[in-house]
Amino acid sequence: MGDGAHGRVRGKVAFVTGAARGQGRSHAVRLAEEGADIIAVDLCCDIDTIGYSMAAPEDLDETARLVEKTGQAVVAARADVRDAAQLRDALETGLAEFDGLDIVVAQAGVAGMKGEPPLQAWCDVINTNLIGTINAIQVALPHLRTGASIIATGSTAALMDTGKKDVPGNDPGGMAYVHSKRAIAHYVHDLATELAPLGIRANVVHPTNTNTPMLQSEPMYRSFRPDLEHPTRADAEPVFGVQQAMRIPYVEPEDISNAVLWLASDEARYVTGMQLRVDAGGYLKWYDYQN
C-alpha cells in the first residue's frame, strides 16, 4: 500500500480504460494508492459475441469507491472504447475536474474464443482490443504533459507462436485476440519513437494468465480443456500452468499493476518502447535468447 501524499505518482492524473473490474480496477486503485487522481471508464454492458459477462455499472461504481477510499479524486464514466467520440467525451469530462493528463492505461480488452457469429467475434475483438487501445491513446495525446507515460496492455500469448493455422477459419475471435495484441505491440513501439523527443513515454505490459473474470470464464476453460464439453474451473486450473515456466497457474492483477505503476512513475522516466513481460517465465519456454 502506498501513501498518496508521498506516493510514486503523487500529483499525476491517470486515464484508465476497462476500469470497472479485473486488471483495470487494480491499476486504477494502485495508482490512486500512490497519489494519482483517476479518470476511470468502462463499457459496463455485455457484448453479444463474447461468451462471458462484461462488467456492470455497479462494478465501475465500486472502482470509484475504492479510489476514493485512498483519498484521491475520481471521475468515472461509461464509454465504449470502440467509439473514439465517447472516449473523448469521457476524458474531457474528467479533465474538466483535473489539470492536465500524465498517465494513460489502455487496459480495456476482451477475449473472443469461439465467439458466434465468428466474423462478428473477430470484429468485436479487433475493435475493442486494438482500435479501442488506439482510440484511448489518441484521444489522450493532445492533453499529455511532458513526462507523461502511456501504458498499453498486450499479452504474453501474443508474443508466442500460438496461432493454430492447421484449421484456417476455425476460431476467428480467438485469432483476433492474438492479432490485436501483436498489433498493439507494434503500434506502441512506433508511437514511442515519435513521442520520445517530446519527453513522453509509451510502453506495453504483456501479462500471462491473470486471475480475472476473463480467465475465470467458460470460454477460457474450454480453450485450456478442449477435450471437455463443459469444463469447470477445477478442470482447467491444473492446465493453466502450461503458460508459465514458474509453477503457478496465473498471476494476480496486482502483479501487473505493480509493473504499470513503475512504468507510470518517474522511476522509469527513461524507459520507453519497452515490451515488458510479466509472465512467470512463460516466454522463456518458447524462445532462445534474443538480443
SSE layout:
Elements: E1 13-17, H1 22-33, E2 37-42, H2 57-69, E3 74-78, H3 84-95, E4 101-106, H4 118-140, E5 144-153, H5 172-195, E6 201-207, H6 218-224, H7 233-240, H8 253-264, E7 275-278
Parallel strand pairs: 1-2, 1-4, 2-3, 4-5, 5-6, 6-7
Helix pairs in contact: 1-2, 1-8, 3-4, 4-5, 6-7
Task: Tell me the CATH topology.
Answer: Rossmann fold
Q: What is the number of E strands?
A: 7
CATH class: Alpha Beta
CATH superfamily: NAD(P)-binding Rossmann-like Domain
Cα-atom radius of gyration: 18 Å
Number of domains: 1
The pLDDT mean sits at 95
Query: What is the terminal separation in angstroms?
Result: 35 Å
User: What profile does the largest beta sheet have?
Assistant: 7 strands, parallel
- Given helix and strand content, the structural type is alpha/beta
Task: Give the DSSP E fraction (strand runs of 2 or more residues).
Answer: 5-15%
H-E string: EHEHEHEHEHEHHHE
Going by CATH, the architecture would be 3-Layer(aba) Sandwich
Helix content: 25-40%
Strand order, main sheet: write it out: 3-2-1-4-5-6-7
Sum up the overall morphology in one term.
globular
Low-confidence stretches: none
Counting DSSP H or I runs of 4 or more residues, the number of helices is 8
Family: Belongs to the short-chain dehydrogenases/reductases (SDR) family.
GO molecular function: oxidoreductase activity
InterPro entries: NAD(P)-bd_dom_sf (IPR036291), SDR_fam (IPR002347), SDR_subfam_1 (IPR023985)
Keywords: NAD, Oxidoreductase
